[in-house]
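Methods: holo model generation. Sequences were used as deposited, without trimming of termini or removal of tags, and paired with ligand SMILES retrieved from the corresponding compound records. Each pair was processed once, and we did not select among multiple samples. The sequence and S-adenosylmethionine SMILES for this entry were:
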Amino acid sequence: MKEAEQGKWDADHYDTQMHFVSKLGRGVVELLGPVQGESVLDLGCGTGSLAGQMALLGAEVTGVDFSETMIEQARLKYPELLFEVGDARTYRSGRKFDAVFSNAALHWVPQADEAARTVAEALRPGGRFAAEFGGFGNVARIERAIHEAVREEGIDPEPRNPWYYPTIGEYTGVLERAGLDVRFAERFDRPTELPGGEEAIRHWLHAFAGSFLAGTDAAARERITQSVEERLRPELFRDGTWTGDYCRIRVLAWKPQG
Ligand SMILES: C[S@@+](CC[C@H](N)C(=O)[O-])C[C@H]1O[C@@H](n2cnc3c(N)ncnc32)[C@H](O)[C@@H]1O
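and the model returned the structure below.
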């Protein structure tokens, strides 16, 4: 998988229009509860906002992300922190971490067993893993509207769909196969106000739905965007605000002591 296949990440746009993602991820930092001096691997760290927050709490954070543009931005924002380009499926480091953290990234990695092995390998015995990402049913309405709109353009959406939204039953099995001891898992609806007023769905598509639009010309992109807006407006647009039909999974798991 290349970055282009999941849509190229636009780091500036992510930080100006999609900052709600890391803002809402602060609850996951609380779930992890990093303390002074702990080493933490932030898997799929994006532009590093939550890595920066964990560093403020005294953790010694390493951020890893698949996207070079996101890592470049993270390094600019937090030159004192360590960031590496790496793939959650294959990343290996010589060291063991006290904790692995991940927010809003693992639903971009359908090879969940591979990512879970990365987590297990990165943790020291007794280390913990806290993560949140899209769960079964996440943005189902938005996803359906995108599928319908791209089909109208003669494009098959299925092979372009980059997302993995498991149930907690599926996902706790993934973690257990990797040898982790799951002590907490929940899936919950989180209707999410999207910033940008009338333009918010456009911003969202630009940030997250690039793979569906790859190879299309500007006119086709505009038709797809308008079609998605029209399909979703009755359900998700109210009083000038778009609300995404988000549904999240949160998990907390431990690597057993040796
Ligand atoms: C929605 S952003 C979340 C970023 C950050 N965790 C936050 O809360 O703002 C998703 C991130 O997952 C990264 N990602 C997607 N697939 C990945 C993979 N296989 N390995 C590592 N990172 C990946 C993307 O590059 C992107 O930066």
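DSSP finds eleven helices and ten strands in the chain.
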